[in-house]
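cache lookup: miss for this entity combination. No prior model stored, computing from scratch. Input as submitted by user K.M.:
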Amino acid sequence: GNSVTQMEGPVTLSEEAFLTINCTYTATGYPSLFWYVQYPGEGLQLLLKATKADDKGSNKGFEATYRKETTSFHLEKGSVQVSDSAVYFCALRGGSNYQLIWGAGTKLIIKP
Amino acid sequence: EAGVTQFPSHSVIEKGQTVTLRCDPISGHDNLYWYRRVMGKEIKFLLHFVKESKQDESGMPNNRFLAERTGGTYSTLKVQPAELEDSGVYFCASSQGSPKDEQYFGPGTRLTVT
């Protein structure tokens, strides 16, 4: 069945550091891929998405490219800020099944 | 426009008791989803309503869980009787006409069963 694997956290970085959070997936067909973010005390928010191979999703300085050959959708940001501290979830949605399949979440801590 | 709201934000109950979680989707959204995250693990799908009908309840863990969506508006998720392993965060999401539309999430209800 479909599944998502993302790097375990917490990930701790200094402000202005480069961020990568790895996400790989297993799916039949051509799933859509998503990154959601949960800031402290808030609900899940869609950060970015990509619906087909080689698409790049981007938002708030974050980027992720749908790589079908490596079944990956790694999240990157060139210079993180303290306000980026949150839990990040990678997810996929595939085929005729509209439920989201989630990774375990990666807690990101940015220190000033 | 109000977002998805969930009530309560946190519930602490004893094993064997009953708890009812409520979700109010964004007005006009036909699709409503329940998910839960247990013990810091991955978020898992529970079920999907289209208006008042259960479209997919394949993720419901057992018959102690009962979900309803009255008149296609708000939804409730009842756990009866609650067990320790039911502790976690329960998220509700809604989307517009097509299930392919973006899902908007509520803040979640943290359930603690002692």
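stored under new cache key. Chain A has a mean pLDDT of 93.
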